[in-house]
Each structure stands twice: as structure tokens, then as C-alpha cells.
Amino acid sequence: MKVIVCGAGQVGFNIARYLALEGNDVTVIDQRPDLVRRISDGLDVQGIVGHASHPDILEKAGAEDADMIIAVTHADEVNMVSCQIAHSIFDVPTKIARVRDQGYLQPIWANLYTRDHMPIDVIISPEIEVARAVTRRLQVPGAFEMIPLVDGKVKLLGVRCDEECPIVNTPLRQLTQLFPELDMIIVGILRDDLPIVPSADDQMLPGDEVYFVVDSDQVARAMATFGHDEPEARRLLIFGGGNIGLFLAREIERNHPWVNAKVIEMDPDRAELAASELGRTVVLHGDVLDSDILEEANVAATETVVAVTNDDETNILASLLAKRYGCQRAVTLVNKGTYEPLVTNLGIDVVVSPRNITVSTILQHVRRGRIHSVHTLREGFGELIEAEAMETSPLVGSPIKDAKLPSGVMLGAIVRQGEMVVPHGDTVVQANDRVVLFAAKESIRKVEKLFSVRLEYF
């Protein structure tokens, strides 16, 4: 597949990296020569210096025979015009644009993005996607990751093991014997920043970050096996009243009316705007690093703080300050990938990466065939993929143990007629089953090659 990526920033770089690793023909456009040089030197892609919305630059990038354009420059207008030109002049089939300004995303303007006006097939709003990801994590206290799959029938959860975790140092094969009625499969372990696709003889150790797939009806029981039985937060403090904080507060008011939420915003005009658009949520004007403001917000009695300001350092320090003052849990937005492995050791419970969330959302639309969702689990770890098994699949009709799946690939769940089936070696996948699988980074391309024709997965 031939893909043009407009923008060589963090998101553009990571999208290009994933696509290049999987053997796609990728061309990246950016105005900054240093970013183009970095991406050309570091990845197997072509880099072009220029304005992504200029027809001659798109022509130079090969738009005439491109299958897809992904526009993720820093300017919404450049992204939108790039898609318009890719459609009007070069007839590129699929056009994806990142749009941040919420003024473009109001429902009353939805007709703007039709084929007859501004033909963008998929619009990605990082702020909205991040706010939704934070909301999901709030629903399962004790988990640093929560992703619903197969129309909510199963969930992927990420849990950090500590010394008190009841099932550490227990071989995974024994979990089935200890909890015979628990529909749960551990699909990945991150140990000392090294990813592990576990075998039946592996065991979890204190400090491990564990990813598992579980039947949605058994989430509470699965969390209890890891020693987590915390109730959902009823007192929430949001640091930052920008697009993410405001959208999150709206979601809380709309879907979680029992939650008492407060917002702290530094900018007086933004604080006033947030206060005017929110009903039950209290908005405080002040600095999230000011101890007086934190005391006024009653941070000591707050169960969860969510730090979503525009500054990583402020988010990290404010989260640590809140926990020092007695807050039980901190969910922290971190843009810089170099910070992510560090902050969990400082005591921050959940790290939210806008870059990973945006890349996952875009990859979901890049995959071809019967893919229903794709989620990136930590940078460099792998992907969680939900797909529909076709009749021509090598998985269908024979036991999983005979399917010869590539190393680094693990089935997490099978959903058949709305019911979760825990996959074992003797389990037989049927046509039209929804299959949830984890593929380690180095195995994604093998999975694509294996299933590209016969499965239509990718």
C-alpha cells in the first residue's frame, strides 16, 4: 500500500514507522528539513521537504497512485486542504486528517466533510480521543489501561503488580486451576521496560505491568485476583480546563452524574469559558502547583486527580503534589515518550500518551479487510487487534495449536454469538468469530503476511 504522511512530528513519525515496518511504501512531507532528515535517516521511507497542501509537492510525493493520505501537520487548515487537493486533483481513495480546533468539529457542521464539500473520510481529534481514553481508565480503578473490545463484550486491562499482589510468582498455567470460572487470558507482560509474550510456564513478578483480556461481566473479579477492589471515584479533580479537560468534564456530567468533579484552570478567560459551559462542575481559577488552590479544591479528600494541562512537567509535578497531599490516584497526561517509563516509578498511577492514542486511532483506519479495531500498547510493545475470522482463515476449522501462529502472537479471546470463549490449544475457531489477538512489535508484519490474502485481516 502506498501512503503519504503529511507532517513529520511525533505522530507523523510514529505512523510512518509502523507503516514502514509492515512493508508499506511510505512518503513523508514536512516543511522542516531537520524533521525530514531525521525521518529519512531513521526509517525506510522517502522524505520530501515542502508544504503538504501544495499540489506540486503532493505530486512529487506520488499522490497520483497513492492509496491513502494521512495529514497530521500542526495546522488543521493544512491537513484539511491537503485532503481536499488529494481528492480533487489526484483522486486519492482514503483521506485521514487530524483536526484539533473544536470549532471545526461541532455537529452542526458535520455536512462540511462530505464528498461534495471537503472530502475527508476520517477526522481524528486527539483531544476528544484522549478525553475518552481517560474516561475509560476512570471506570476501572487500579488499572492503568482499559480498552473495550467486541462491542463491549470483552475488555483489555493493564495492571501493575506489587509485592502484595496475590498471584505473583504463580505460573500462568496454574491460574486456570485456581480460578476455573474466570474467563481471563494474560496476553502481555512488560518487565523492566522489556516486553514479554508469556507462555504457560511464565509467572508474574512484582513490578511487572500485565495486560490481560477478560469477559466484561468479570472485570471486578479479575481485578480482585490482582488485589484491586477499589470503588469507582466519586470525587474527581481535573487539572487544566483546555479542550481535553473541558471534554472530560462534560463526559463526567453526562455519563457519571454521581461523580463530584472540579476543574482548576490557570487562564482566567478559559476558566470563565469552562464555567459557562459546565453545569454541576466547579471551576477554580488558579495555578495547579499552588498549595492554596489545591487546599481550596480539597485535594486531600479527592480520590482521583487527572492532570491534562498543556505542559508535561506541570502535569507530573501537580500529580505528585496532589498525591503528597492525600489524593489516592493520579492520571497524568504525558506527551514526551522519554518521560513515560520514568513517571510510574515516581508514584503516578496512570500515564496517558496522546501520541499513542492518536496513532492507535489512525492505524485502526489504515488496516484493511476485517479489522474492527487496533490499539497500540505502549510504544515498542505491540498491538491489540480485534478482527473477524473468515472462512478462508487458517485458524478456522482446526485446533488453535495446529494453526502455526507466528511467535509473539497470542490469542486473547474469541467472541461467538455474543459470548466470550477462552482460547486454549484445543479450541476450534469458527467462521465469523470475532478474534482478539496480541501481536508483539516484531511479529506484526509476520501476522500481516500470514493473513493478508487468506484472512482479509489486514
Describe this structure in words.
- The protein has 458 residues and is of the alpha/beta class.
- It has three domains: 2-124, Rossmann fold (3-Layer(aba) Sandwich); 235-356, Rossmann fold (3-Layer(aba) Sandwich), CATH 3.40.50; 357-451, Regulator of K+ conductance, C-terminal domain (Alpha-Beta Plaits, 2-Layer Sandwich), CATH 3.30.70.
- Helices cover 30% and strands 26% of the residues.
- It contains 14 helices and 22 strands.
- The strands form four sheets. A six-stranded parallel beta sheet has the order 3-2-1-4-5-6, sandwiched between helices.
- α1 crosses α13 (354-366), α5 crosses α8 (243-255) and α5 (126-139) packs across α13 (354-366).
- The longest helix is centred in the first third of the chain and has 14 residues, at 126-139.
- It is globular, with a radius of gyration of 23 Å.
**Given this structure, which CATH class of the largest domain is correct?**
Alpha Beta
CATH topology of the largest domain: Rossmann fold
Q: Write down the overall geometry.
A: globular
Strand order of the largest sheet: 3-2-1-4-5-6
Give the second-level CATH assignment, the architecture of the largest domain.
Answer: 3-Layer(aba) Sandwich
Major beta sheet, specifics? 6 strands, parallel
Mean pLDDT: 88
Report the oligomer: single chain
Structural class, by secondary structure, is alpha/beta
What is Rg?
23 Å
CATH homology group of the largest domain = NAD(P)-binding Rossmann-like Domain
Q: Helical amount among residues, as a percent range?
A: 25-40%
Beta content:
25-35%
Runs with pLDDT <50, length 5+?
452-458
- Count of β-strands: 22
End-to-end C-alpha gap: 11 Å
